[in-house]
């Protein structure tokens, strides 16, 4: 019986780690593919959180510069779709041929590819009323 419980725990942990390694397709346009995944991020300071990370891939054989607007959704409501002038959600990038750039928990590296979803810390006493449940891409443009 003990070995069954241990095996079940190992299987559960394996599934949890694999879920954080899987990228899910979000958007494809003009040689750029965008993927996302949800991860738990341990904070260096402040509270631990769950975040949406982006992975952006240039699938072409040419260098590209592009910009896009990242839309944030709370259930069925887009909370920033009508504020496209907000620079915080405009992502501008340069990618070399076949290059991939991934968001990370460390918000200082590629900070615009790591989007806060909700706090996930036993010490956090507030609410997660603005929990981001979905991301979408709008206004994708190749720049010269």
Describe the structure concisely for a colleague:
The protein is mainly beta.
Blueprint of the fold:
Layout: H1 2-21, E1 24-29, E2 32-41, E3 49-58, E4 64-74, E5 77-78, E6 90-95, E7 100-102, E8 114-119, E9 134-143
Antiparallel strand pairs: 1-2, 2-3, 3-7, 3-8, 4-5, 4-6, 4-9
Task: Explain what the structure shows.
The chain is mainly beta and 144 residues long. The protein has a single domain (24-143), classed as Immunoglobulin-like. The protein contains 1 helix and 9 strands; from the N terminus they run αβββββββββ. Strands 1, 2, 3, 7 and 8 form a 5-stranded antiparallel sheet that branches. Strands 4, 5, 6 and 9 form a 4-stranded antiparallel sheet that branches. β1 (24-29) and β2 (32-41) form a beta hairpin. It is globular. The N and C termini lie far apart (64 Å). The model is unreliable at 4-19 (pLDDT under 50).
